[in-house]
């Protein structure tokens, strides 16, 4: 079987375009708001334009899925992510820990930070 590109010089191999990055930021934020927070944050490594899109997501759900470190990784993530978070309104903040709350967790600071972001 012959390759069409080889037999027809006018047909060129199509390079895969990054069409999703061309979508409006509001739509990208909406898409990221319906996937798990950890996956939305992971998109920050895709490219420079994607680095901070997750910070506009108005919904943060953080779950401690392992019994390691008594949930410290979740609290560290929350403290760091809320410092970077830029959404004008935080519609939803959910924190679930499987193990007990870490001794150094500043719950008051977390609540104050959420209130300052006009949490609903």
TrEMBL record:
<dbReference type="InterPro" id="IPR053781">
    <property type="entry name" value="F-box_AtFBL13-like"/>
</dbReference>
<dbReference type="InterPro" id="IPR055294">
    <property type="entry name" value="FBL60-like"/>
</dbReference>
<protein>
    <recommendedName>
        <fullName>F-box domain-containing protein</fullName>
    </recommendedName>
</protein>
<dbReference type="InterPro" id="IPR001810">
    <property type="entry name" value="F-box_dom"/>
</dbReference>
<feature type="domain" description="F-box">
    <location>
        <begin position="20"/>
        <end position="59"/>
    </location>
</feature>
<dbReference type="InterPro" id="IPR036047">
    <property type="entry name" value="F-box-like_dom_sf"/>
</dbReference>
<dbReference type="Pfam" id="PF00646">
    <property type="entry name" value="F-box"/>
</dbReference>
């Amino acid at each position: 079987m012959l390759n069409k590109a080889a037999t027809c010089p006018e047909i060129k191999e199509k390079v895969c375009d990054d069409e999703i990055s061309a979508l409006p930021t509001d739509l990208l934020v909406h898409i990221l708001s319906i996937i798990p927070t950890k996956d939305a944050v992971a998109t920050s490594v895709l490219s420079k334009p994607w680095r901070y899109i997750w910070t506009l997501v108005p919904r943060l759900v953080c779950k401690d899925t392992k019994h390691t470190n008594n949930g410290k990784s979740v609290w560290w993530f929350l403290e760091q992510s809320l410092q970077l978070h830029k959404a004008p309104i935080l519609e939803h903040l959910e924190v679930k820990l499987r193990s007990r709350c870490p001794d150094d967790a500043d719950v008051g600071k977390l609540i104050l930070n959420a209130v300052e972001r006009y949490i609903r």
